Amino acid sequence: MMTGTLTGTLTETGTGQTMSVDADLAAIRAIAEAVPDPELVVVTVGDLGIVRDIRTGDGTVEIDVTPTYSACPATLAIELEIETAVNSAGYAAVVRRVLSPAWTTDWITPEGRTKLKEAGIAPPIARSDDDSGAVQYFSQPVVPCPRCDSHDTARLSAFGATACKAQYQCASCHEPFDYFKCL
Amino acid sequence: MVSADNIAGIGMSAPDHAAQPQDPAPRQVPGDLPGRAQQDDLLALLMRLGDDHLILGHRLSEWCGHAPMLEEDLALPNMALDLLGTARMCYGYAAEIEGSGKTEDDYAFLRDGTAFRHILMVEQPNGDFAYTILRQFFFAAFMHPFWQEMTGLADPRLAAHAQKAVKELAYHIRHSGEWVIRLGDGTPESARRIGDALDALSPYVGELFETDSISIALTTAGVLPDMEVVQRQFDATVAQTFRAATLPDYAPEFAHSGGRRGRHTEYLGHLLAELQFMQRAYPGQSW
């Protein structure tokens, strides 16, 4: 899996054409936040809460983006797509990767949670600070089925198709489903 | 507590001509800029941390398509991905400090074995599932308190990464620790296998806590956690888990050493032959 190159470069300076220094921050935020997550296209990066701050200055627009997981393969793609989207609206965008404070599933918006559920992905059921870090073996959260709302579900796999998900199955409607892990 | 300064390494000796820039520099060079020594120490730390994570991540990724069940086929590469994320952070940070135009790729793909600074445990072949999962448990039980301590320390970049890593590592402890318990408290066959894994891995655990002049200087500067604090929490996690797994008390008497000085076992060369193949065969290839 690692016989390629790891390099991912962010553009140091925006490539946008003319920039409007007196940018409409709300409009830029709307453009940036509308970018869909490339691995989870039902939600936007705004729904996930990873666009942390937008500032204008020096003829450019600085956009702070926080990765969800430290090695989420979508991180670079998301950053480039945000930059492209904002650039094509005529602003010179510079995306900064910000690690602190660390992203938490608490930042997923209510709208984002609804979209996840409608797509058959159970949203995180707890607050991240409920998980104090103490080792608790064999304790699995009760995750309601996103399709039939039954609480009679069981975890099939601690890891799923992406780093952020686990796999569950509903014992009432028998549908397997993804659970967005609480982080 | 084991000191790398006092214990002879095993495996290959690093030839003299292979001295690498991240080797400790003389501390007081006349005319040296203040902070230079600490920067060298930080670079050395980033290589140690980055290499631990890259090499173990590569070992885990070897399970992809070979795990005993589908769930583990998902779990092991997913954990590998987390480890790779930390390796990338370390190498990217190191490249910025060195400022010589290197990228993270140079560290991962263009260094020879003697330049790697990971502990010997992570380069050992995967063995069976019990061996792999127990090694993962030991590593996670160490890295979790390591990052927890790091969140309050002086280097802002490492402290920020620690906030994220600590959550990922808690998940790794749970996943690997549950398997240690299942295997230890399972069938005679599973208990035999995890017992054999414990015998084989025990001599490699002490190197996690090894200190030397570099790590001591960094701890004094408030950049690296105090290894005694980390070890106390490691011991508590291991004791709790081993009790539930009906495994004997963990009390290793011997620790291999050498990885932090570039003295590795013969397995590293074979690992790098695969890890670095593309860049060696097609220099400069990129996506």
Give an account of the 3D structure.
The complex is a heterodimer of chains A (183) and B (287). The longest helix of chain A is centred in the middle third of the chain and has 15 residues, at 74-88. Helix content of chain A is 20%, strand content 23%. Chain A has two domains: 25-97, GMP Synthetase, Chain A, domain 3 (2-Layer Sandwich); 109-180, no CATH class. Chain A is of the alpha/beta class. In chain A, helix 1 packs across helix 3. Chain A has a four-stranded mixed sheet. The relative contact order of chain A is 0.15. In chain B, 61% of the residues lie in helices and 0% in strands. Chain B has helices at 36-61, 70-98, 104-109, 120-123, 129-150, 156-184, 188-205, 213-220, 227-244, 267-275, 277-281. Chain B has eleven helices and no strands. Chain B has 287 residues and is mainly alpha-helical. Chain B has one domain (36-281): Up-down Bundle (Ferritin), CATH 1.20.1260.10. At the A-B interface, loops of A face helix 1, helix 2, helix 3, helix 6 and helix 9 of B.
According to DSSP, the number of beta strands of chain B is: 0
Named CATH architecture of chain B: Up-down Bundle
Give the largest interface pair and sizes.
A-B, 35 and 59 residues
CATH topology of chain B: Ferritin
Uncertain regions spanning at least 5 consecutive residues of chain B: 1-34
Quote the distance from N terminus to C terminus of chain B. 44 Å
Count of discrete domains of chain B = 1
Number of strands of chain A: 9
Largest sheet of chain A: 4 strands, mixed
What's the CATH H-level homologous superfamily of the largest domain in chain A? Fe-S cluster assembly (FSCA)
Count up the helices of chain A: 4
CATH H-tier superfamily of chain B: Ferritin, core subunit, four-helix bundle
Low-confidence stretches of chain A: 1-21
Mean pLDDT of chain B: 89
Beta-strand content bin of chain B: under 5%
Radius of gyration of chain B: 19 Å
Rg calc of chain A: 19 Å
Assembly type of the shown chains?
A: heterodimer
- Helix-residue proportion of chain B: 55-70%
Helical proportion of chain A?
Answer: 10-25%
What is the name of the CATH class of chain B?
Mainly Alpha
